[in-house]
Here is the input.
Amino acid sequence: MAKNKNKKEPRKKIKKKNLKKQKRGKKMPPKAEKKVLPVVQKTKIKIIGIGGGAGTIISEISSRVKKADFVLTDTVAPRKNSSKIKKVFLGEGATYGFGTGMDPDLGESSATLSKEKIEKILSGQDICIIVSCLGGGAGSGAMPIFAKEARKMNILTYGIFTLPFNFEGERKKGFAFSSIEKAKPYLNAYSLIPNEKIFEIIDKQTPIKEALSIINRHLAENLEGLIEMIHSPGVINIDFADFRTILSGKGQLAFLNSYSIDRENIMEDLKKITSDPFSLYPASKAKGILYNILGGEDLCLSEVSMISRAISNSASRKAKIIFGINQSKKNKNKIKTILLAVGCGESEAPSKKKNKKIKKNSSKKEIEVKTKERKEDERRRNGLQIQEENQKIEKGFLEEDSYETPAILRKIK
Here is the structure.
């Protein structure tokens, strides 16, 4: 009997506790009514290097850039690389691991044969940053296939492409620009970095590895700033939705620059935010601008205003402008800006269109007069040419006649 009493005692105590809580007005919620909070997903960013040239860039960027996954794809059999970078071999049945030999068609066929691999690389991503050194076979041929597949999967795509040196010849440049034209309908935006620009920055006696590393470091800083802009919370946040708003479009030329401002020479440094020695074009007249200002706890509103004015003044009047502000102890006495401007270098295109419209809208009489004038000029030129030719022929005949006519007949004449 004692055992039964011991078993019942704890039950009675639990009931009493529940009664006391009910008296105080505290109701115990039933298990079925427990609310499950929604899982907040972070923006998934993947940086994909295509081709051998991109391998050196990706290996240097991966050591610095965090909060992003890295994949290196090539038509050459994989080599030793950073453990952080996933290596994928494309087109086993096309290149057999020996590369493309500067044949973009072979690079394209290698990518089309490996579409399942490309889909796996891209699956589940929000933003895909494609890095490629254009002008060769693998990069120029495979890059548009990656862009096309990413577009099918509704992934935001941003391309960063280097262009060949001038000494590499016009053929390589042709491959590079034809690759960009193929990829434009599928890319949201892309930036161009000519290798030739390095000669404007480095000393003539700078070693090759060091010179190429300068370009890679510059790319790493820009991408690091771009990814931090999306991931890092701040006083004014920039999120994936803002990034999507600015990148909504097709084949837009973009300008990306990360720059540290000297507070003592802030007026001089403001111009350098919207221009970059590595870029072919500035951020002027951009249609969309996304920028972030990073500073310490001593960051002033006047400094933010000065930077913002300099950036907004360079943009188009109808441009979408989104900005963010981050403050942290790490950036004490420092101000850093990350600027992504989309729709750059397109100021010349509208003027050409306007000229075409003017020609179409011009009166029929003007067109008729111009056509008549052209025809008359052509006739005059043709007439003069015929006269000259006839004169030459006549002279030739006269000379021939003078030799062929016998001496007796010439004397009679």
